[in-house]
Design goal:
40% strand, SH3 type barrels, mainly beta, Fumarylacetoacetate hydrolase, domain 2, twelve-stranded mixed β-sheet, binds magnesium ion
Amino acid sequence: MRIVRVDVSNEIHWGVLRDDTVELLSVPPFEGIVSSGRTVPVSETRFLAPVVPQKIICLGRNYGEHVAEMGYVPADSPALFMKPPGSVIGPDELVVLPPTWLSTHVEHEAELGIVIGRGGRFIEEADALEAVLGFTCADDVSARDLQKSDPHPTRGKGFDTFCPVGPWIETDVSLDGGLGIRCRVNGVLRQDASTAQMIFNVPFLVSYISQYTTLVPGDLILTGSPGGTLPLGDGDVVEIEIEGVGLLRHGVRDA
Ligand code: MG
């Protein structure tokens, strides 16, 4: 099932995508899939980010190739950081590059996003997927110069618009064997990997994070980027495609 958040005539609704129509829901999907009985054509909707997270918890250094290209050594424990919820944008929206006096080097990072459903605290690894509603595609956009020059990644990772998410939450995903994860910029393949290459896997991460903070419905976990991250510029079109999940497209523009 593909869960969407859509704008219909300036009203925001949750819905379920069924071919070329959206069946609108009467309650948020975290409370159950309850149809409102109203269906609208996709052409009369605009897809919004399919999450309004209370928090976005991200993982660095989770693919060996990216660890190497960043000049890091693999971490013994998950390298967690957070992006502000206000950095989220939806499909086909624009990442706004910082003014050049702040940053001149911004890169894409294709990542599998975990959308928390039931959530909880002290979740056992064996129960982790039951706490998850589904998966989405995300771009952990990063001002690489600030990330490296600042003592902490907060600024480099946290600019407004630096978290494109979408196009929907896919609830029927099998992680077994890994999912292909790719990033194209202006049609040129830049990242091509498998989620099977993650150092810390999805159930472990949900469990690990829930040891320190309560995961609530709609929280978003970004699971780290494979190698191949490269600079973005004004006018670029970024496509992040995850096998069995979807394809997220967003633009880029100067400040
Ligand atoms: Mg990242």
